[in-house]
Model the fold of this input.
Amino acid sequence: MRVLIVGATGFIGRALVPRLRRDGHTIAAWVRSESRARTVLGEQAELVPASRGSDALVATLRTSDAVVNLAGEAIVGKRWTAARRRTLEESRVGVTRDLVRAIAAAAPRPRVLVSGSAVGWYGDRGDERLTETSSPGDDFLARLCRDWERAAIEAEQSGVRVVLLRTSIVLGRNGGALAQMLPPFRLGLGGPIGSGRQFFPWIHLDDHVSAVATMITDPRYHGPVNVVAPQEASSRTFGAALGRALHRPAILPTPAFVLRVIFGEASTTLLASQRVEPAVLAAHGFGFAFPNLDAALADIVR
Done:
């Protein structure tokens, strides 16, 4: 298959490109910076600069069998000012709307769109078990995910199978949330966040890209899919597991009020509790390479 990836130079995209190539697919990437993308991706993908406009995107879609949409500015790390909220919305909802409009204009068009979302869709739900059929939350991140998914699902009107990736915290080398956690943990200064009781949904990067590769070719996948490992973890048990992987103590908590002072409302991404289950992946018999948190972290930090 020929697969068009939006967001190919991001943390997940950089791992997805070589995985799809190993599976025998050819890759095109819609990119903002051609020079940066060439540096990151090398010759692994045909580059389609966004500066060429919608006509170039539509032309690429005509020759693509599948589209993977991973676009989006980082949620964590900055306060959610009005300007930052607009950036987060445009980089997700706006880009997805543009992509879906281009799909509608293409003939022939791709058969499947696998589009990003997040477990933030559920909001802060304590210890409630959450599957793909659970109701949505109502905070900023939940509303953002709802709008993001609504923009993607419009591609069904063009006869395209749409899969919505409700992604959890992706753990891997050289990026993602773990890159920010490792420095203090390596110094023995890590530990639980907030109360430590909140559920911490996670998945190994290898399993994430394997799931996406499966969804592209398996027509059983459609609608929302929780991309999360089957083993539950709390903030406390995650911190303890990371400490074990690094052979460091992990007992120093980061108080919730400190995170609220630093990040404001954006701290909810670190303090919210989401007990998410991979119900759809389990129903379709998806095989996790890293279903166990200790094994996943050992693989990453070794």
About this structure: Residues 67 and 292 are 30 Å apart (CA to CA).
